Please model this.
Amino acid sequence: MVLIDCLQYANWSEKIFRQMRAGGVDAVHVTIAYHETFRETVLNIETWNRWFAQFPDLIFHGAWASDVALARETGRTAIFFGFQNPSPIEDDIGLVEVLHKLGARFMQLSYNNQSLLATGCYEAEDPGLTRMGRQVIKEMNRVGMVVDMSHSADRSTMEAADLSERPIAITHANPYDWHPALRNKRAEVIRAVVQNGGMMGFSLYPHHLKDGSACRLADFCAMVARMAETHGVDHFGIGSDLCQDQPDSVVHWMRTGRWTKETDFGEGSADTPGFPPMPAWFQDNRDFGTIAGDLKEVGFSANEVAKLMGGNWLRFFEQGFVPQS
Amino acid sequence: MVLIDCLQYANWSEKIFRQMRAGGVDAVHVTIAYHETFRETVLNIETWNRWFAQFPDLIFHGAWASDVALARETGRTAIFFGFQNPSPIEDDIGLVEVLHKLGARFMQLSYNNQSLLATGCYEAEDPGLTRMGRQVIKEMNRVGMVVDMSHSADRSTMEAADLSERPIAITHANPYDWHPALRNKRAEVIRAVVQNGGMMGFSLYPHHLKDGSACRLADFCAMVARMAETHGVDHFGIGSDLCQDQPDSVVHWMRTGRWTKETDFGEGSADTPGFPPMPAWFQDNRDFGTIAGDLKEVGFSANEVAKLMGGNWLRFFEQGFVPQS
Model:
């Protein structure tokens, strides 16, 4: 069984890389930019390059879907780069190709707020894709960078799903009708994404879970089963949103960036401004097996569990990362 | 009579600075950024610093309204900096204060397209100010940087006029009901700006003029008279949008920046992609006297003409540029 987690943003360390190996995780899509400019993103790539040099037996930079097979053959984890915000391309469409060359494979068109490309899910209104957004989607399609709408607003997401010539992704979110958070996705949004061949990764971040940190794994798996019944099992995977070992200063950066001088608590509140504790059944990369086990218990076949735990993401990687010919 | 032009973007040269002196122009708000990043904007400031050093008898860097009086006393033209796009602050609210310190006194919240702050007048829909836009207006109010909505969409402009605690400006545009261009302003937009104490500068750029380059000065002055009757003479001035001596590559940059790989013709067209010829009666800085003369002929008093040609902008500079205490 291929095991792919399509979103993590941990405070990376040898410990975490060893946990990936212990958990048998073949590939992880890691966030390398929340609000970073192009130059700052390149610095983050340099940091990853140092980790790749330091831990060559544990991890390597994944560029293509075939690197997932390579990871399995060599007992390592392939690390794929992505952005949760288009800030790395700044206002420059030419940076899409440059950053794809540097390894970027996913880019969110917005992160909670309005971007130059699309509206974020925290804005009061969503007028859909901008003029630049339409141009950038075309360019992302051309070079093979996946449009990720995890933190975007509904109309922008549906327009992106329709406009994009290649399937798009919601790498980490859950259905709104299971847990009505601003970050979770309404049925029509999920439908638009999957109808166009897209993928959604289920999030294990407590603010996206029914009952938060106390969410029961059985409830999570029942939700997965319902989604697979409604939209087809081929369109779903995991995007855990694991932010392991991060200090709370990082969630402050994620929410506030440099756009306000006030404190924005995002999904948190003044009383609980920090990272929420992860559910007991998902503490780190060693816990994917537990989820796979419980997915079987709610009725998925072994083949379906394999799709959900990574097979679907692998197919999506195969379709999504290569330049258009 | 104080003479202030509240928008020019010429291909600056000794010739043009001498024409400013020949025309008796006391102050000009010059554009120093269309799509430039912070760093690129600083390079443009350095270029201006070299001009200030090279032509100290003709021009100097204007920082405060009192520099208009200094310009008159010393027979020079005060140059005030502004941006037609918020690109110089990138995604960083802290750059508002930094750029005010470097002399920036006007910043448009958007330039034709959606920005991080507000919608531009070429977007299909306008959801109003963004979350960041509301924060940045507050910060601009605090430090004394004027909100300029010349290239913004209607709803964003009206919301900015209402939200801003200090009067805002449309530095260069004309009424939409005189010449229905996307860049010209509907009556309710002008009303929102002036009701909040704001100013509008009439543009002499042919795409904003009835009959374009063939616009008659008498028609222009009649429009000014109608606007003064409707909204009060105290709220208007000149923002010529003079792009003297610019090669057509510059209008391509203004329209296309780095946001698309296609060519956007903006107010032009594939047949006429370049700068349009200016009207015969306004070729350069020596022609303001002609306009002042014809304003008298449509019935304005000498005092009213003085307000329109610079007195109103001077009052606005006095109110707008100093930090809030």
